[in-house]
Amino acid sequence: MARFDLSDGEWRIIEPLLPNKPRGVARVDDRRVLNGIFYILRTGSPWRDLPERYGPYTTVYNRFNRWAKAGVWVNIFNALSAKSPESMAFIDSSIIRAHQHAAGGKKGARITPSVALVAD
């Protein structure tokens, strides 16, 4: 088990929320795939740099996208936040860094006073 892999307690909460539609071919272990997804999200590495212990990067990437489209990540987030409501206090957009030009408007734009818009 790697440093940030899912614990048994976390896995017990998440496992029932994952879709399980057998398609004839044996699926790669969902827990291993989740750990691979979390590795990529935590490190910011490209999918191709996923360590081999998590399985083929294409499988991990495809499962991540499929689950995102199916709303699985929202269900997982809701289940985990329900188990730990006090952790919701740590979710804050102030930790997201804005681009250096995000605060400024378009340069050279004319600002029309609202008084001129209402005048007869």
Rg value: 22 Å
Discrete helix count: 5
Overall mean pLDDT: 79
What portion of the residues fall into strands of 2 or more residues?
under 5%
Structural class of the secondary elements?
mainly alpha
Span between termini = 74 Å
The SSE order reads HHHHH
Q: Report the strand count.
A: 0
List low-pLDDT spans. none
Q: Which descriptor suits the 3D outline?
A: globular
What is the helix content?
A: 40-55%
Major beta sheet summary: none
Characterization of the model:
- The chain is mainly α and 120 residues long.
- It has a domain at 8-85.
- The protein contains five helices and no strands.
- It has helices spanning 8-14, 30-43, 57-70, 72-83, 114-118.
- The longest helix has 14 residues, at 30-43.
- It is globular and about 65 Å long.
- The model has no long low-confidence stretch (mean pLDDT 79).
